[in-house]
Write a structure and sequence with these properties.
The protein has 175 residues and is mainly beta. The chain is built from 3 helices and 12 strands, in the order ββαβββαβαββββββ. The longest helix has 6 residues.
């Protein structure tokens, strides 16, 4: 078991269940590509007790809408079974560089969102990738808004201040 600080890690997926008899795990990935897993090298598996078990990535490949993940030391269904429903983390520092207008999901969650007029809308609670762009789920004052992550709408993101400013398009904030 690794005793690592959760603040040093980023959640990048979760295990659905074992796959087959040879220790493969069927997972849901939150990462933009499977290269993130290879780049990280090691994953930190949390079975729900916040005690992380570090495992080396051997292989990951697409399987329908999920992925099949092979980790070091998992060679049977019995060994893989203990990771059913486990959360999968990597070290933040393994992510590498990003472009100026690129943000990691962990940087955006919890961010305060304001309209361009200064009206407070709420906090980014979730982020959904849709293919063409992400959608930010903003909750506040008993309302939920779905904000498309496009340049026409997102006008400012300030990581240090945990602040996002949007210019809503017509109908975006109507309930």
């Amino acid at each position: 078991m690794s005793h690592i600080d959760l603040r040093d890690l980023i959640l990048i997926g979760h295990v659905i269940r074992p796959h087959g008899l040879t220790g493969l795990l069927r997972i849901v990935s939150y990462a933009q590509s499977r290269e993130t897993f290879f780049q990280a090298g090691s994953l930190f598996m949390d079975r729900g007790n916040n005690e992380f078990e570090e495992r080396k990535v051997i292989d990951i490949r697409p399987h329908g809408s999920s992925f099949l993940l092979r980790l070091s030391g998992l060679n049977s269904i019995e060994q893989a079974e203990i990771f059913k429903a486990a959360r999968i983390y990597i070290r933040k520092d393994s992510l590498g560089e990003k472009d100026e207008d690129e943000f990691f999901y962990y940087e955006l969650r919890g961010m305060n969102v304001y309209s361009i007029t200064g009206h407070y809308l709420g906090v980014v609670k979730e982020i959904f990738p849709t293919g063409s762009n992400d959608v930010y789920v903003v909750e506040g004052q008993g309302k939920e808004f779905l904000i498309p992550a496009i340049h026409k709408v997102i006008k400012e993101i300030n990581i240090a201040q945990k602040r996002m400013v949007i210019s809503p398009i017509k109908g975006l904030l109507d309930l």
